[in-house]
Predict the 3D structure of the following.
Amino acid sequence: MNYRVIIPAAGQGKRMGLGYNKLFLPLGGRALIAHTLDVFLQDSSCETVILSTNEEERELFLSLSLKGDRSKITFVNGGVERQHSVANGLSSIDAKEDTLVLVHDGARPFITREVIAKVVQKANDNGAAIVGVPVKDTIKRIQSSVVQETIDRSSLWQIQTPQAFRLSILHEAHQWARVNNYLGTDEASLVEKISYPVSIVEGSYDNIKLTTKEDIYFGEAILQAKSQ
Ligand code: CTP
Ligand code: MG
């Protein structure tokens, strides 16, 4: 099943605190985003990579050292929030096309083709599918530094990307969000708002999003383990 992927890459990496976009952090000698891009560029089912970037960083993205076919990349401008960066990518696709669209965080370099294939298959069957893993920790609700309750974690999952959708569904969800001024932290939250059922497939705990400084040594360790 062929698909296109939108990769939002126009953030600033504030929580990582490097003073530059964390996607250019070197991991195993290459920029973080180069690892992410190569997974999709080397996947024959991936037709196009729509990369949403800050315009002033375009040259940096163009000079990345990549192993895959860089001619599959098309650029769009990022927006103020991640959701806007994805929306810009979405509007670059002809709305009439019958295609599957994936959204994958630039900051998740350890996604595998196996998990991509699983979520693509599920979205092809059901229209909307996301990747996640069951929560491992005990989760409590806290207010004013005091525990309010322990939440039953048996039905809680941590959500990752990729998230995969039939184009028409993702379009409708983004349109709803625009009209209602709704800002979500992922695409599925918008699709939930239009009451379309979102399926889940189990991913892998190492599909981390590099977000804060300590994720750098987790990232280095995962990369090393994978290259053995
Ligand atoms: N992103 C984007 N456009 C934005 C904000 C984020 O394309 N306006 C992208 C990031 O580049 C990243 C992904 O969305 O690949 C997930 O976002 P996050 O991990 O929050 O990255 P940043 O926004 O860069 O980090 P922070 O929130 O700490 O500033
Ligand atoms: Mg952010």
Q: What stands out?
A: Residues 11, 82 surround magnesium ion (ligand 2) (CB under 6 Å). DSSP finds seven helices and eleven strands in the chain. The chain has a mean pLDDT of 97. The domain at 3-130+157-226 is CATH 3.90.550.10 (Spore Coat Polysaccharide Biosynthesis Protein SpsA; Chain A).
